[in-house]
Design goal:
The complex is a heterotrimer. Chain A is of the alpha+beta class. Helix content of chain A is 39%, strand content 15%. Among the domains of chain A are: 156 residues, no CATH class; 149 residues, Up-down Bundle (Methane Monooxygenase Hydroxylase, Chain G, domain 1), CATH 1.20.58.100.
């Protein structure tokens, strides 16, 4: 008997959630008041879950390491949020969103979860608009949509290039409203360092007050980890500097299985690395692929400037290879295609590790439509360009400004230079249909879980999933667990399990200080990142992964012998915070490689060089690998694989094609 | 390497809010113009750690200008000399070889220093908690297109909502006033039909909390608008004033 | 209700409203003052000017307005003091380096100093003209009181002329910020009219002080006899 029970409800796909929702046990209002829930992380998933649960009457405590819940990295999402509203009358439906997501995820996600996600997607938009999120609108006052990669309908809602910011601030507002009402206790500048399990159930956390350095014990009848993804294992990624895996990893070490850790999303359109000093990478929203055309010179090793290369000498390789989807192929496909061109010697820019994203055609096209709209007869070429620029600026102004700020180049005149970068992690803590991990009472929401995106996430789906989990899933599914906990009184934090967990956290901190080595934390983080990017990045091979595992183990030993953590523990000490996080990243990195090594197929963002077609497209092996790899931590850096078979009943599983 | 710079930094060092701080001089060498200002601080901190000294504590997170966490007062201006950018998006090409750069924390009674360049901005959260929301519980929403919103209103609300809560407005204001921040949220919600319902209570409660936090008063110098990395307009303060007066006349 | 209105006037925005309203009121007084004094440029030996002065001295509405004006001025000054003290408290530790000119005008940041200068100037100004007039009113000799001659006498002294010019310059800069600022405080900010407010403000801040400045200068140079 497998240890994994996905708890997918019986019945037809379309009715699973509706039927299940109405049958989940409820908790009466009086009991809710005495049930405490801890939420770790204040991004879309965390803030929406915390506010919803508090609205329902639970006692909620929220933790975030930033100075305010409004800083969570959901804020940096740019492009948009999908919803099957079909406002554009282009044939969209819940089923189509579900289908696109499953197919985009390369058939490595659970049908039931994804269908639920697609069906609540419309409620999210309603909720956000009701709570004052200023999504983009048309002149008639109706909501506007744009298209995104991997789909052929326009279902993406947006707020210029700041959709994540606006949605997060909406959820943050809802959260702060509850803080004001006294139903949520907000603990900012706190980092979770361990979960506390009592009698096989999760009952709280150990957190460090980052200002005083004090370790604190917090009890909860349930704990929700909404702590985001682990892309920073690569050192360079589009994640925020503080994004980390610590909460999820500590939970993993306390019994929560880690699902598909090797499924990483490499985003095709990021600003290329400019030098060794680089601390992070910046994304240029996928929405730009709506209007930008991606190309490289046809000539090998061409050193001319972009503007000197005439149309006939440009290779619009995505349009050439994938005529049906063109520049709007899914992210994994676009990323690999860029890497392929650069590796073959067609890259551009000083590093030659970049391709062009060109808006010239879009500016011309918009110039014409704008001239018609404004009633300008026979506009001059300069006028047309001006009009076109105005439209492009309205759509992507902040992204263009950001690009110019970072590179010092004007993207209205010169094509952008872009290259893939680590952006999102589909893997995460394994959860069942209720979003509960393998530890009863411990949940994972949003990017922190593995659930909905399979091996590749479609654009504008992360925001959707975070809010779906927080607003529309956990408020119901948590009842299945908490309804049985109503008789449990709040457990004293003097309980031996709390004492032991705090002691453990303290020992790790003491150990880090005791090393007094010679290298900074960043030194190790950069080395880990390089190993991961080179050997567990866009292309992976058995040889590389085995080397990576050996390298990471050696790095781990070196870290624990030679890292230098300055300062003291009872103080505001960002270096100590980083040290703890990097220690966990090193362990996770090894597991990612182990998982990647195990999965000898190519699927979604996971590309094994050994498994490709003759044309170099990814080759999936459904008979062997149609499962979720859930890893159990057996201590001492040993991991045991558990498989959750994926059954496709509504969708006919097929090799993906975007041609 | 060509174009690389040597600079002198004068950085505010302060152990905690209970101790006094002072400016300390640090030379930094070989700084690439393509580095961001914070990456230059990474280089400096790496040097300090190697030398066995305490690195400089500063707030930062997304490093792409949207989270609002970074907060340095650079040569007398919040987020440095360039308009429309946060410190993390400020690049070293804005400086010249041999420059001396003075870096201080945001200074305001409402933003006490935690350590070095890190300050406590939780006052902003407390202001939002008093009314920076629409009281709609999950599950109550009608279809998102049921209430059409004129595009100009939606756009204006969005522009006000672009505030990242970094506190540069407070830092630069000679009076440490938070009115640009507070008015941006009040405006965003006042411009939307969904937000009108609670407009009266919202403006009164948020202004009261703002006053309680010890921010100064607005004297309309306009510095906040100029220094705001997201270009939040003074129009919002005027709107807040109107909303506040009308609210007080009504109830 | 009463409690709320008390809170209103104590709130930051309430105080600001009072500053704006009293400021606009003082501006309206400046217009009247400036218009009446301009009779001096008729160069008719002070006939019209003194008639105007007599009218102002005898009209009961003006008498009441004078008291309102006095209180308006006090309120403006006291409120400014309260706000300044509060604002100073809001930043206990100042910046070592602050580049205010990068984002605002010096006179916008110096309203307190400009206002204090104006207050000092006002003391001098009132001691020159207003006290005598008041004395004449109480003595019942107001009908014989010749403000015009008094003015000619005061402005033959170069020191007085210099003091008045400085006062007028302070007034100009105070208005340059104060005029549009009052509109902003009242919430009258609209993209369509902002340009108009701004231009009117600049025009007002230049023209009115210029007219005031022209009086001592013209008298001193003997253009007005």
């Amino acid at each position: 008997m497998s240890k994994l029970d996905s708890k997918i409800p019986e019945g037809a796909l379309e009715q699973k959630w509706e039927k299940y929702k109405s049958s989940i046990p409820l908790v009466n209002p009086a009991n809710k008041r005495s049930l405490e829930v801890i939420v770790v992380g204040s991004g879309l998933a965390g803030a929406s879950a915390a506010s919803s649960l508090a609205e329902m009457g639970y006692k909620v405590k929220v933790f975030c390491f930033q100075d305010s819940p409004r800083r969570a990295h959901s804020i940096a999402a740019q492009g948009g949020i999908n919803a099957a509203k079909n406002y554009q009358n282009d044939g969209d439906s819940t089923y189509r969103l579900f289908y696109d997501t499953i197919k985009g995820g390369d058939y490595r996600s659970r049908e039931a979860n994804v269908y639920r996600l697609a069906s609540v997607s419309t409620n999210i938009i309603d909720q956000c608009v009701a709570s004052g999120v200023p999504l983009a609108r048309e002149y008639g006052g109706m909501l506007s949509n744009r298209s995104f990669g991997g789909t052929q309908v326009q279902r993406t809602f947006y707020a210029a290039g700041q959709t994540g910011q606006q949605l997060l601030l909406g959820a943050y507002s809802a959260l702060l409203r509850q803080v004001g009402l006294g139903t949520v206790e907000m603990c900012a500048r706190h980092e979770m360092l361990d979960v506390v399990n009592i009698d096989g159930k999760c009952r709280g956390i150990i957190a460090r007050d980052l200002i005083s350095g004090k370790l604190e014990r917090h009890f909860g009848h349930a704990v929700l980890l909404c702590s985001g993804g682990y892309g920073n294992v690569f050192y360079l990624s589009t994640n925020a500097m503080g994004s980390n895996v610590t909460a999820a990893w500590k939970a993993h070490k306390r019994g929560a299985f880690f699902g598909n850790p090797c499924f990483t999303q490499i985003h095709p359109t990021c600003i290329p690395v400019s030098g060794d000093h680089q601390s992070k990478l910046t994304l240029m929203s996928e929405s730009l692929r709506n209007d930008g055309r991606i190309w490289v010179p046809k000539k090998h090793g061409d050193t001319r400037k972009a503007n000197e290369i005439i149309e006939e000498e440009r290779d619009y390789y995505l349009e050439r290879r994938y005529p049906a989807f063109g520049n709007l192929v899914p992210r994994d496909v676009a990323s690999r295609a860029a890497k392929e061109r650069c590796d073959a010697g067609f890259g551009v820019g000083t590093s030659k590790m970049a391709v062009y994203l060109d808006f010239k055609a879009a500016i011309e096209r918009y110039g014409h439509t704008q001239a018609v709209k404004l009633g300008v007869q026979n506009p001059s070429a300069t006028e047309l360009k001006e009009f076109g620029k105005q439209v492009v600026e309205e759509k992507y102004g902040n992204l263009f400004a950001m690009y110019e700020q970072i590179t010092g180049e004007n993207p209205y005149e010169l094509p952008m230079r872009i290259y893939p970068a680590v952006h999102y992690t589909m893997g995460g803590l394994w959860v069942d249909y209720n979003l509960m991990t393998t530890v009863p009472g411990l949940y994972a929401l949003g990017e922190a879980n593995f659930s909905d995106h399979g091996a590749n996430r479609l654009g504008a789906s992360a925001l959707m999933q975070g809010l779906a989990d927080g607003y529309f899933v956990i408020p119901y599914t948590i009842g299945a667990y908490l309804s049985k906990e109503i008789s449990v009184k709040a457990i004293s934090t003097d309980h031996e399990a709390f004492v032991a967990a705090e002691k453990n956290a303290q020992e790790i901190i003491d150990k880090l200080f005791a090393i007094k080595g010679t290298k900074s934390v960043d030194y190790f983080h950069k080395r880990l990142g390089k190993i991961m990017w080179d050997k567990c990045g866009m292309a992976r091979s058995e040889k590389g992964l085995k080397e990576a595992i050996a390298d990471i183990r050696a790095l781990r030993d070196e870290f624990w012998k030679d890292v230098r953590v300055p300062g003291t523990a009872n103080d505001f000490n960002p270096e100590l915070e980083k040290a703890g996080r990097v220690a966990d990243f090193i362990e996770l990195g090894e597991l990612m490689c182990i998982d990647a090594l195990n999965r000898t197929e190519s699927c979604g963002g996971h590309f094994r060089e050994e498994s490709q077609t003759e044309e170099g497209e990814a080759l999936r092996k459904d008979d062997e690998f149609a499962y979720v790899a859930a890893w159990e931590n057996n201590g001492d850096h040993t991991y045991e694989l558990h498989k959750e078979e994926l059954k496709f009943e509504a969708i006919k599983i097929a090799q993906r094609s975007y041609k | 390497m060509s174009g690389h710079m040597n600079l002198t930094l004068k950085v505010w060092r302060q152990k905690s809010d209970k101790e006094n701080g002072k400016l300390v001089t640090y030379p930094v060498q070989n700084i690439s113009p393509d580095m961001s200002f914070l990456e230059m601080f990474d280089v400096l901190n790496e040097q300090l750690i190697t030398k066995g000294e305490q690195p400089i504590a500063f707030d930062h997170d997304c490093r792409e200008g949207i989270c609002g966490m970074c907060s340095m007062y650079i040569n007398g201006r919040p987020h440095g000399p360039k308009r429309g950018v946060t410190t993390c998006q400020l690049h070293m090409r804005s400086f010249k070889d041999g420059d001396t750069i003075v870096v201080e924390p945001w200074r305001a009674a409402a933003f006490p220093v935690i350590k070095d360049l890190t300050v406590n901005r939780s006052a902003f959260d407390r202001v939002i908690a008093k009314g920076g929301f629409i009281s709609v519980n999950v599950g109550n929403a009608q279809d998102a297109n049921n209430i059409p919103i004129p595009k100009p209103d939606a756009d204006a609300a969005f522009q006000a909502a672009a505030c990242i809560g970094c506190g540069a407005c407070v830092a630069t204001c000679k009076n440490s006033s938070a009115m640009l921040f507070v008015s941006a949220k009040i405006s965003q919600l006042a411009l939307l039909p969904q937000g009108r319902v609670e407009a009266t209570a919202r403006v009164k409660n948020m202004v009261a909390q703002m006053d309680e936090e010890g921010f100064g008063n607005c004297t309309n110098t306009g510095a906040c608008e100029v220094e705001c990395p997201k270009g939040i307009s003074l129009e919002n303060i005027a709107r807040m004033n109107r909303e506040f007066f009308v609210a007080n006349i009504k109830s | 209700m009463s409690n709320t209105s008390g809170k209103f006037i104590q709130s930051s925005l309430g105080k600001k409203l009072l500053m704006g309203l009293t400021g606009l009121f003082l501006i309206s007084f400046l217009i009247v003052h400036c218009l009446l004094n301009s009779f001096i440029f008729l160069n008719d030996g002070g006939v019209m000017f003194n008639e105007g002065a007599q009218f102002m001295a005898n009209n009961p509405i003006i008498r009441i307005m004078e008291i309102v004006l006095f209180f308006g001025l006090i309120a403006h000054a006291v409120q400014a003091l309260v706000l300044t003290l509060q604002n100073n408290k809001a930043r206990p530790i100042k910046y070592a380096v602050n580049n205010g000119n990068a984002n605002s005008k010096w006179y916008s940041r110096s309203m307190g100093i400009l206002g204090s200068l104006l207050l000092l100037f006002l003391v001098v100004h009132l001691s020159h003209f207003w006290i005598d007039t008041k004395a004449a009113q109480f003595n019942g000799t107001i009908a014989e009181h010749n403000t015009y001659l008094e003015m000619i006498e005061v402005f033959h002294n170069p020191i007085n002329v210099a003091v008045y010019l400085l006062g007028v310059i302070a007034l100009a800069y105070h208005l340059l910020h104060g005029f549009p600022s009052a509109f902003q405080t009242m919430g009258w900010n609209h993209p369509k009219y902002n340009g108009l407010i701004k231009k009117t403000g600049i025009l007002f801040s230049i023209v009115v002080p210029m007219i005031f400045a022209a009086m001592p200068v013209a008298i001193f140079l003997g253009w007005i006899k």
